[in-house]
Amino acid sequence: MPETQLIPLKNSLQQKDMSSEKVAADSNRDIATEDIERYSVFTKAEKWCVVALASYAAWFSTLSSFIYFPAIPNLSKELEVSINKIDLTVTTYMAVATFSPMLVADAAETLGRRPVYAVTLTVYFVANLAIALSKTYPALLALRALQALAISGMCYCSH
């Protein structure tokens, strides 16, 4: 008879141990969930805003190259140069855009993404404004190169 009384006692001890393990596992899950929830200081809306802004900035490089094409004849007339010279501004943009990501990505790794984003987007904005206000062909050519240098690395910087 004492053996039969011991068996339920063993089972109850095992159940206590199992229940304490379960409590420990549940508390670990709660801690892990809290850590996951507190992984970022940004709210969900702020995270979406950051993703949208980074995506939009990465899209500017493509936008700057293609939106320029319909304006080529008008630029040729306004600056009183041949269309071939205006085409050279497109070629300059593409040439600078090929090596610019290397420079921007290296700067982002060294200085951090946030300052690089701020500087390149500011330079891009200023270059766009200056292009809109430029009255000479050499200024347009140099500003297109600056525009490409500033914005072409954004898609690599955003990853």
How many domain modules?
2
Number of E strands: 0
What is the count of helical runs?
7
Work out the radius of gyration: 30 Å
Report the helical percentage.
over 70%
Sheet/helix structural class: mainly alpha
First-residue to last-residue Cα separation: 71 Å
In percent terms, what proportion of residues is strand? under 5%
Low-confidence region ranges? 6-17
Shape verdict: elongated
Which whole number gives the mean pLDDT?
79
Sheet with the most strands, sense and barrel status: none
Task: Give helix and strand order, one letter per element, not per position.
Answer: HHHHHHH
Care to describe what's here?
With 159 residues, this protein is mainly alpha-helical. It folds into two domains: 1-39; 44-157, no CATH class. It is 86% helix and 0% strand. It has helices at 2-37, 44-66, 72-79, 83-111, 113-133, 137-151, 154-157. The chain starts with a helix and ends with a helix. Mean pLDDT is 79; it is low at 6-17.
Helices and strands, with pairings:
Layout: H1 2-37, H2 44-66, H3 72-79, H4 83-111, H5 113-133, H6 137-151, H7 154-157
Helix pairs in contact: 3-4, 4-5, 4-6, 5-6
A few lines on this structure:
The protein is an all-alpha fold and 159 residues long.
Key words describing this protein structure:
159 residues; mainly alpha; 2 domains; 7 helices; elongated
